[in-house]
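Long-time lurker. I teach an intro course on protein structure, and each term I like to show students one example going from raw sequence to a predicted 3D structure in C-alpha cell notation. This year I'd like something fresh instead of my usual example. Would anyone be willing to generate the C-alpha cells for the chain below so I can use it in lecture? Attribution to the forum is fine with me.
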Amino acid sequence: MMPRTRFLCAVLLSVCLAGAACAQALPRISEAKADPLRPVVGDTLRLTCRLQDPSGAVKTVTAVVRELPDVRVRLQPVEGGLLGFAVPVTAELQPMVYHLDLVARDAQGFRVRLAPGSTTTASFTIGQPRVTKAPPAPDFRPPLVAVKATARDGKPIVIRHPYRSHANWYKGQLHCHTTNSDGRTPPPVLVGKYLDNGCSWLQISDHEVVTADDRAPDGRQIVRLLGRERAIREGDMVCINYREPSITLTGQDTINAVVRAGGLVMLAHPESDVGYDRQELDRLRGMALVEMMNGPDGDASREWDYLLSTGRVVWGAASDDFHGNPEGTTSRSFVVVNAPRLDPAALLENLRLGNFYASQGPMLRLELRGGALRASSDQQGWFAFRGAYGVCLHRVFRGPDRTSAVYELTGDEGYVRVEFRGPEGKMAWSQPFFVSRAK
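-- Reply from a regular --
Happy to contribute to a lecture. Here you go:
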C-alpha cells in the first residue's frame, strides 16, 4: 500500500472512531413505554423511560402529547433509575391513538441531541377506535389552465397554472382551534374575531371534533367549511370538508378516507417538531395542500418546494393554527380564494383547483403577458420569483411609485412561484406556475 493511501486510511479510521466515541457519549433514552397501553376513563396512565446521560447534559425530559400540542408533562424520577409521570384518564380524551414525543433539554432550555437509536415516542390508545380502510387515493392532479407562449429566447413554451379569473376574492381561515379541543376561545367568540378581521369564511379545525358554530355572539354569521385536525403517526393533517367519525391509524389511510369522502387534506406545520421528514413526504400521496406558513413565522416553504420539485402538484396555504385566548390575535396567516360565489361548494372546489393565494396581509395579483409573469401588490416591497427547490430566479424591489414586478420565463424552470414581502415583513405567496418547453 502506498504511503499516501495508508495515511488517508489512517485519517479515515480516526474520524470513524472519533464519530463512534462521540455517538456513545450522547445521551440516550430507552425503554419508553406507556402502561396500560389501552387505558379507559378512570385509569391512571403511567409513562416511564430510562435516560442514560454520561455527560450530564440533560436537565429535563418532557412528554409532549402530539395530538394535543399544548399538553406537556415534565418527567420526574421514579424507582429503579427511571423517569416518568402518572396522570388520570378523563372523559375529555377522545377514543383514538395518542403519541407522546419525548424531548430532552439542557439547563438553558435548548434541545439536546440524543444518541442514534434513542426511543423518542411512546403511544397509547383510549377506548376502541374504529379503524377505517379506504382505497388508495390517486395522485393529486387537478385540472390546470394551459397557455402557450414564447420564451425570452424566442422558443415556444407551455405554462400551466391554477388561476381562473373569477370576479370575487374571499379571505378565509383553514386551521384554528376552540375550547371544543385544545383552544382557549369559545367557538362563537372565535367566529366573531374572524369576522372582525375581514374573513368571509372559516373552517374551525378542532382536534378529532367537528365544530359547526357559524354565528358570533352578536348574531353575525360566517360561511363555514366543516372539518377537523387529525394527528397520526407521520404528523398532523387538517381534513377539509370531512365530518366522518371514523379513525385512521396512518397518514395515507387518513388521506384515502378524506379523498373518498370528497374532502381535501392539508399537511399541517410540516416544519415543526411533530411535522414530516422527507421520507414521510415521499411516501404520502393524494394530499391537496401543505401548510407552508403556520402562524406568523412557522415557515415550511422548504418542504413545499421539495414536494413541487419531486413532481407533485400540491398547493401552498397559510394558516393561523390559533389556540389562544379571546383577546389573542387572529388572521396572522390566511388564504384568499377566487370563487364565483361565497358558498362552501364553490370555496371547496377552488381550493381543490389551487385558485387562491396565501397571505399575512398583503394583496397579491398575478397576470401572464405572453411569456412573462407579472406580479403586483397593494403595498411596496420585495418580489421574489422562485423555482425548483426554492432557488431565487429573480428578485425585484419597487419603490413608492410602483408595486409590481415582471419575470420573463425561459421554459426550463419546471415551476415558478411568487413571494412578496411588504414593508412590515408580512408576506404573500402565489401558487406555482408550471413551465415546460412546447413539444
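Some talking points for your students: Residues 146-437 form a domain with the TIM Barrel fold (CATH 3.20.20.140). Confidence is low (pLDDT under 50) at residues 13-23.
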